[in-house]
Amino acid sequence: DPTKSQLANGEDLKLEGKLKELFTIAQIRTNFLILMLIMTVSCYSFFSIQYQMKNIEGSIIENTLAAQAAEACGNLFSGFIFFKIGARISFICMFTLSAIGSIILNFVVKANNEALIPVFVAVAKFGITASFNMSFIAVVQITPTIFTSTIFGFCNVTARLMTVLAPEIVELPDVVPIVINVICASVAAIC
I need a surface site. Which of 49, 69, 89, 155 has the fewest CB within 10 A? Predict the structure, then answer.
């Protein structure tokens, strides 16, 4: 029954599907806000990495091929990862993987070995692609059925609004776009 939900404390709840319930029931509100943050960060970072390809050192062809291979793997394995290890650990792992890949790419590899650039582009892209896909799964799995489309709509709107800024942020000086991606991924992993 889509109008019934069970809170974390085991209490059964009869929902009417009103917007007021979305914001007044603490557990639903908290899940909604966390999902909004996760979807916004993952959507922004997913597209931001693509826009950054032209600014990353090394061969743009090799970097793009590595990113697209990682994206395909992220698309294939994200659902398996989500259901195997759970939502919280999946998001922590994938956002951390993306942040580590970005940090190593921009602060370690650039100075030492250009051949490793596609590897860490792939690491960052895999992490963020898996997070992006898992955010869609999480909305359906975590929210009460009666609110799923409403929460998905709110999350998608905020995610796309933030993504509009990605092309502009990528044009900021040198490491600023990567630092923003790392900060966003780190905040999302912590939440």
Answer: 89
